Amino acid sequence: MNNEEQLIASSHQYNVKKECPMPSPRELFKLAYEADRNRKFDEAENFYRQALKLNPKYSMAWNNLGWILFDQFQQYKEAEKCYKKALKYDNRNFYAWNNWGILYYRQKMNFSKAQECWEKAITFNPEFGNAWNNLSVLYKFQHGNPTKAREFEEKAIKYQNSEQKQTPTSNLTYNFCSECGSTLEASQKICDVCGLER
Protein backbone atom coordinates (compact mmCIF):
# COMPACT_ATOMS: atom_id res chain seq x y z
CA MET A 1 0.00 0.00 0.00
CA ASN A 2 1.46 3.41 -0.96
CA ASN A 3 1.41 6.52 1.28
CA GLU A 4 -1.78 7.94 -0.22
CA GLU A 5 -3.63 4.63 0.15
CA GLN A 6 -2.44 4.37 3.77
CA LEU A 7 -3.58 7.92 4.47
CA ILE A 8 -7.01 7.28 2.97
CA ALA A 9 -7.38 3.98 4.85
CA SER A 10 -6.28 5.58 8.11
CA SER A 11 -8.56 8.57 7.61
CA HIS A 12 -11.61 6.33 7.21
CA GLN A 13 -11.20 5.04 10.76
CA TYR A 14 -11.68 8.66 11.88
CA ASN A 15 -14.91 9.08 9.89
CA VAL A 16 -13.73 11.28 7.03
CA LYS A 17 -16.46 11.72 4.42
CA LYS A 18 -16.36 8.82 1.98
CA GLU A 19 -17.18 10.97 -1.06
CA CYS A 20 -13.86 12.80 -0.61
CA PRO A 21 -11.06 10.35 -1.51
CA MET A 22 -8.26 12.68 -0.34
CA PRO A 23 -8.96 14.64 2.85
CA SER A 24 -8.59 18.43 2.80
CA PRO A 25 -5.94 20.17 4.95
CA ARG A 26 -8.64 21.06 7.46
CA GLU A 27 -9.89 17.47 7.64
CA LEU A 28 -6.31 16.25 8.05
CA PHE A 29 -5.81 18.80 10.83
CA LYS A 30 -8.89 17.44 12.61
CA LEU A 31 -7.63 13.87 12.15
CA ALA A 32 -4.25 14.85 13.57
CA TYR A 33 -5.84 16.62 16.51
CA GLU A 34 -8.03 13.60 17.25
CA ALA A 35 -5.09 11.18 16.94
CA ASP A 36 -3.10 13.42 19.31
CA ARG A 37 -5.94 13.40 21.84
CA ASN A 38 -5.99 9.59 21.57
CA ARG A 39 -2.23 9.53 22.21
CA LYS A 40 -1.52 8.18 18.71
CA PHE A 41 1.36 10.59 18.19
CA ASP A 42 2.88 8.91 15.12
CA GLU A 43 -0.49 9.15 13.34
CA ALA A 44 -0.96 12.74 14.48
CA GLU A 45 2.47 13.69 13.15
CA ASN A 46 1.68 12.02 9.82
CA PHE A 47 -1.68 13.80 9.47
CA TYR A 48 -0.14 17.21 10.29
CA ARG A 49 2.61 16.61 7.74
CA GLN A 50 0.03 15.60 5.11
CA ALA A 51 -2.01 18.74 5.85
CA LEU A 52 1.13 20.83 5.45
CA LYS A 53 1.94 19.21 2.10
CA LEU A 54 -1.45 20.38 0.88
CA ASN A 55 -1.28 23.78 2.61
CA PRO A 56 2.28 24.77 3.58
CA LYS A 57 0.97 28.04 5.10
CA TYR A 58 -1.26 26.32 7.67
CA SER A 59 0.05 28.07 10.79
CA MET A 60 -1.77 25.97 13.40
CA ALA A 61 -0.69 22.73 11.75
CA TRP A 62 2.93 23.93 12.01
CA ASN A 63 2.35 24.83 15.65
CA ASN A 64 0.72 21.52 16.57
CA LEU A 65 3.34 19.51 14.68
CA GLY A 66 5.99 21.46 16.59
CA TRP A 67 4.34 20.61 19.89
CA ILE A 68 4.26 16.89 19.11
CA LEU A 69 7.89 16.93 17.97
CA PHE A 70 8.88 18.82 21.14
CA ASP A 71 6.71 17.16 23.76
CA GLN A 72 6.45 13.58 22.51
CA PHE A 73 9.53 12.96 20.36
CA GLN A 74 12.07 15.37 21.92
CA GLN A 75 13.01 16.68 18.46
CA TYR A 76 13.75 20.16 19.73
CA LYS A 77 15.42 21.64 16.65
CA GLU A 78 12.63 20.42 14.39
CA ALA A 79 10.01 21.72 16.82
CA GLU A 80 11.64 25.15 16.81
CA LYS A 81 11.61 25.19 13.00
CA CYS A 82 7.88 24.41 13.12
CA TYR A 83 7.18 27.29 15.52
CA LYS A 84 9.15 29.65 13.30
CA LYS A 85 7.11 28.56 10.28
CA ALA A 86 3.86 28.87 12.21
CA LEU A 87 4.78 32.46 13.04
CA LYS A 88 6.01 33.18 9.53
CA TYR A 89 2.51 32.42 8.22
CA ASP A 90 0.61 33.98 11.14
CA ASN A 91 2.70 36.20 13.40
CA ARG A 92 -0.36 36.59 15.67
CA ASN A 93 -0.49 32.85 16.43
CA PHE A 94 -0.36 33.15 20.20
CA TYR A 95 -0.29 29.36 20.61
CA ALA A 96 2.98 29.20 18.65
CA TRP A 97 4.45 32.08 20.69
CA ASN A 98 3.47 30.27 23.87
CA ASN A 99 4.90 26.93 22.76
CA TRP A 100 8.12 28.50 21.54
CA GLY A 101 8.43 30.08 24.99
CA ILE A 102 8.02 26.66 26.59
CA LEU A 103 10.81 25.33 24.37
CA TYR A 104 13.09 28.20 25.43
CA TYR A 105 12.23 27.65 29.09
CA ARG A 106 12.45 23.86 29.28
CA GLN A 107 15.05 22.95 26.69
CA LYS A 108 17.30 25.93 26.22
CA MET A 109 16.99 27.38 29.75
CA ASN A 110 16.83 30.79 28.08
CA PHE A 111 14.44 32.51 30.44
CA SER A 112 14.58 35.95 28.86
CA LYS A 113 13.62 34.53 25.43
CA ALA A 114 10.86 32.47 27.04
CA GLN A 115 9.51 35.61 28.69
CA GLU A 116 9.62 37.49 25.37
CA CYS A 117 7.63 34.73 23.68
CA TRP A 118 4.98 34.62 26.41
CA GLU A 119 4.66 38.38 26.45
CA LYS A 120 4.22 38.27 22.66
CA ALA A 121 1.47 35.65 23.06
CA ILE A 122 -0.30 37.95 25.52
CA THR A 123 0.11 40.88 23.12
CA PHE A 124 -1.96 38.98 20.55
CA ASN A 125 -4.38 37.51 23.08
CA PRO A 126 -4.36 39.40 26.40
CA GLU A 127 -6.68 36.80 27.89
CA PHE A 128 -4.63 33.70 27.02
CA GLY A 129 -4.45 31.97 30.39
CA ASN A 130 -1.66 29.55 29.47
CA ALA A 131 0.83 32.33 28.73
CA TRP A 132 -0.09 34.13 31.96
CA ASN A 133 0.43 30.86 33.84
CA ASN A 134 3.84 30.34 32.22
CA LEU A 135 4.87 33.89 33.19
CA SER A 136 3.71 33.16 36.73
CA VAL A 137 6.00 30.12 36.94
CA LEU A 138 8.87 32.12 35.45
CA TYR A 139 8.49 34.95 37.96
CA LYS A 140 8.11 32.56 40.89
CA PHE A 141 11.02 30.22 40.20
CA GLN A 142 13.45 32.17 38.00
CA HIS A 143 12.92 35.80 38.94
CA GLY A 144 12.15 35.18 42.61
CA ASN A 145 9.24 37.61 42.53
CA PRO A 146 6.27 35.93 44.26
CA THR A 147 4.15 39.10 44.18
CA LYS A 148 4.35 39.38 40.38
CA ALA A 149 3.97 35.59 40.09
CA ARG A 150 0.72 35.73 42.07
CA GLU A 151 -0.57 38.61 39.91
CA PHE A 152 0.06 36.56 36.75
CA GLU A 153 -1.41 33.44 38.34
CA GLU A 154 -4.63 35.32 39.11
CA LYS A 155 -4.84 36.45 35.48
CA ALA A 156 -4.24 32.87 34.32
CA ILE A 157 -7.10 31.62 36.48
CA LYS A 158 -9.37 34.47 35.38
CA TYR A 159 -8.80 33.86 31.68
CA GLN A 160 -8.85 30.08 31.53
CA ASN A 161 -11.35 28.83 28.94
CA SER A 162 -12.42 32.35 27.94
CA GLU A 163 -14.20 32.34 24.58
CA GLN A 164 -14.43 36.01 23.63
CA LYS A 165 -11.54 38.44 24.04
CA GLN A 166 -11.24 42.23 24.12
CA THR A 167 -8.05 44.17 23.57
CA PRO A 168 -7.14 46.30 26.60
CA THR A 169 -6.51 49.40 24.44
CA SER A 170 -9.84 49.50 22.64
CA ASN A 171 -13.44 48.43 22.74
CA LEU A 172 -12.98 46.24 19.67
CA THR A 173 -14.09 42.70 20.28
CA TYR A 174 -12.10 39.88 18.74
CA ASN A 175 -12.92 36.21 18.57
CA PHE A 176 -10.58 33.32 18.14
CA CYS A 177 -11.18 30.44 15.77
CA SER A 178 -12.22 27.35 17.70
CA GLU A 179 -10.41 25.20 15.14
CA CYS A 180 -6.97 26.80 14.94
CA GLY A 181 -6.92 29.69 17.42
CA SER A 182 -6.30 32.42 14.85
CA THR A 183 -7.57 35.93 15.58
CA LEU A 184 -10.89 36.81 13.94
CA GLU A 185 -12.45 40.24 13.81
CA ALA A 186 -15.89 40.36 15.42
CA SER A 187 -17.64 40.49 12.04
CA GLN A 188 -15.44 37.86 10.37
CA LYS A 189 -17.35 34.69 9.51
CA ILE A 190 -14.59 32.53 7.96
CA CYS A 191 -11.14 31.93 9.41
CA ASP A 192 -8.36 33.04 7.05
CA VAL A 193 -6.01 30.34 8.34
CA CYS A 194 -8.05 27.13 8.42
CA GLY A 195 -11.24 28.09 6.59
CA LEU A 196 -13.60 27.21 9.44
CA GLU A 197 -16.99 28.93 9.15
CA ARG A 198 -18.57 30.14 12.37
From TrEMBL:
Pfam families: TPR_11 (PF13414), TPR_16 (PF13432), TPR_17 (PF13431). It comes from the Archaea. InterPro entries: TMTC_O-mannosyl-trnsfr, TPR-like_helical_dom_sf, TPR_rpt. PANTHER family: PROTEIN O-MANNOSYL-TRANSFERASE TMTC1, PTHR44809. This is Photosystem I assembly protein Ycf3. It comes from Candidatus Lokiarchaeum ossiferum.
